[in-house]
Amino acid sequence: MKRKVLSVVLAGVLALSMTGCGSGSQETTAADKAAETTAADKAAETTAGEAAETASGAGASGETYQVGICQLVQHDALDQATQGFKDALTQALGDAVTFDEQNAQGDPNTCSTIINSFVSSDVDLILANATPALQAAQAGTSEIPVLGTSVTEYGVALGIDDFDGVVGGNISGTSDLAPLDEQAELLHELFPDARNVGLLYCSAEANSQYQVDTVKTALEGLGYTCQYYAFSDSNDLSTVATRAAAESDVIYVPTDNTVASNAEIVNNICQPEKVPVIAGEEGICAGCGVATLSISYYDLGVGTGQMAARILTGEEDISQMPIAYAPQFTKKYNKTICEALGVTVPDDYQAIGE
User: Fold this and answer.
1) Rounded distance between C-alpha atoms, residue 16 and residue 322, angstroms
2) Residue 14 contacts residue 306 (beta carbons within 8 Å)
């Protein structure tokens, strides 16, 4: 089966979906990982005509595919990743693919129920959007191909020691990991005179713990004092955020799904206290942050959808597919909150929504 491509604009994303990257040590950045493999980039060079041939060929052969989508919770980043995935897979396979899309409303136990329903329905492939969904899929099936997306660190999420970038078995996917040392440098660029940084995150999210641990090391190397402010779920977020705002000069929030779904709570606490928030992704920054180094979750979903197409058509073996990383990262800022707090950003920052 010949490979396809969505468009010239998305060609870079397709190339990244083929890039082999290891998670390595905490000092390894996503950008380093994305540069490790070039042979896969060459394999991703295709034409739009081949994409059309792939889609029409699937329909002509009578092959149809049912894809189950388990999304942890509804918020902008995960919504965009799901939409990008569906758009890319539909572009590749046309009417031959149908989707069973379900949302767990933030409950990991519901993720397990959803995954079990997909297994019972014998779907052809599962998209697990966010870490708890991926963990549920890992526990639920070893046979159906599973692609994760919006997952920061697969080794941490799946309990793999010395993760080398390939999960193996029936799992692969895409990571939303932005360079954590560069996020720390962004905080330092905007707030060089700050001393105390609060690390606000949900302790139930393994990838959030990984991010704040890594950022803490980087920030301490820049001379900051860091303090963890962990909450167990949305019920104690307000209490913990209030304490963090009272004790911190700046707050850092990773790509945390609980905060993403409750960013207004954080903003209503931190903005009146004049405490700026540096966010791990754009959606959180739009709700409560002043700035972020972020990726396009839509493009991340597109890359995942392209991987799915190659798996479903038999073009690639999921057990050999490396985790793919976002191709670029952008410094963005929240104009409204920056103005409210009197924060001035350099010219190379892009306003969210512009």
Assistant:
1) 10
2) yes
